[in-house]
Input
Amino acid sequence: MYKYIARRILQFIPMLFLVSIIVYALAYFAPGDPLTGKMMDPNIPKDVYEERREALGLNDPIYMQYGRWLSSVSTGDLGMSMMYTGKSVADLIKARIMNTVYLSTFALFITIVISLPLGIYSARKPYSLLDYSTTTFAFLGLATPSFFAGLIAIYVFAFQLGWLPSQGTITTIGLTGFDLFIDKIKHLILPGFTLGLSSTAIYMRYMRTEMLDVMGSDFIRTARAKGLSNNSVLYKHTLRNALIPIITLLGFEFGTLLSGAVITEAIYVYPGIGTLFLTSILNRDYPIIMAINLILAVTILVGNLLADIFYAVADPRIRYD
Amino acid sequence: MKIDVTVNVEGTTLQPERSLSPSQLAMRRFLRNKLALVGLFLMVIFILIGIFAPFIATQDPTVSNLSQVYSKPSSEHYLGTDASGRDNFSRLVFGTRISLTVGFTAMIFTLVIGLVLGSLAGYYGGKVDAVIMRATDLMLTIPFLLLVLTIIAILQKVSIGIFVVIIAFTTWPNITRILRGTFLSLREKEFILGARSIGCSDFRIITKHFLPNAIGPIIVNATLTMATMIVIESALSFIGFGIPEPTPTWGNMIDEARQIRVLTKFPEAWIPPGAAILLTVLAINFIGDGLRDAFDPKGKR
Output
């Protein structure tokens, strides 16, 4: 197992490099460089422009430019934004990333709290009324695009019923302590459910299938044969084994949620990195676009690594070599 | 434990006649699946609406009329008009045509990439497989939506054709993985060994022996991919980076609801296209699930 984990970590490093190369290549193909556009006056003579290019190293071979970029990125320097003049990309992202993390975590929490119990229940009583209801919900949840679900949620819960806020992260400035916390949670509910909708539907199905799968295996028959109570078989033997692949999949899910946040944040005008990304795309602010791509790709890589390690640790039956 | 009774029963009742081919059997199982038939029925309706859009629509969906912006539903405009005075009902009808065509062509593009790469990886294994699989890993690492948006930002100008190519170029890893798995399992079968031993070329083995035997998973995944494509198109159009206006697509219509006024006051403008997406995806998923059960009756899913 340790050998497997070590090998998995060793695989992680070249992937990290490849991702950085792809992100850099995307930036390289992006039209313009830091000197075209707003920063350069057409009246400035060409040789001044060339001098500046030379000074910035834009005429160096591409692998040298990549090396320089990589070394500055690894120290946390992600460059300067093009549209917010004078602001560094790192600061812009830092100001918003926590909002996106809250949103994704909340969506993940909703997914787990709703989908796992319902999945377990419908596996316990397959073809019951609740099983059919959850199946119907799962089909609908999978077929509803998140932006449509979000709009419906705003229309119903924010405007028709007036229960919850539909935009931003806080109502008024000046709230403190517990009130602030409650206010923030209120602002998270609609976006959180919107973002978590499809994964809730998926995991409900996964959990059910996984439980039924384990229930059909030999060791469950043995457990029943030796006279264990139904609950003991269900929760001690079946659930534990069924949860292993589910938790692993949830590790992958976090990355999906982070990128799904782009759409959800757009609906709720939620100030996270999703909205920052969309504004940057609209304004062709390539340094920000590349930085967010890189950050999310690395997050996903780390998430996958952790999920794989967890899987190896939690399930000793699996032999990797 | 489910035992596949249907095959046995059919086998005995149809003894005197010619027995059914596997795809005929799959067809029978499919037609016995009620949900799948409902899905098929819905899809046929949508396709008919798409084909006969010019006859159903009451107006040209791209013509704007600035004297009639945001009008409420009337006998002239069944679903009212949008910000440029275009008729929402006609846009919805023509949107069916665009959304289905985009979904279908994008699916075909992805499927072709997936089939080529998946069969190469599955057939040759070894180094070819390793390279292709690492490439899919890499593609899956960069979040799909961000990658599409980044490419759109780099290309700057997007037409329908380019849009289809972009989404196909970014969605191939999933289907490649699935098909590669199918091909890998076929690779060890005796009939492939047989084909190889009588001197069939690699190309012939892939096209004549691999593809027909993987037809089930290919059709199932192609169907489900089409649903994904329709959602992707509408999601990107919704955030304003999809198919450019004034081409009517369902996503472009829902995009209007990003203005609070439209969202709250004109639900008739954005709920129908949203419902259309939902129903299409639901129908395609029903068909896909039905096909999966039909091709693989023993699979427990």
In short: The CA atoms of residues 36 and 287 of chain B lie 5 Å apart. The two ends of chain B are 12 Å apart (CA to CA). Chain B is about 75% helix and 0% strand.
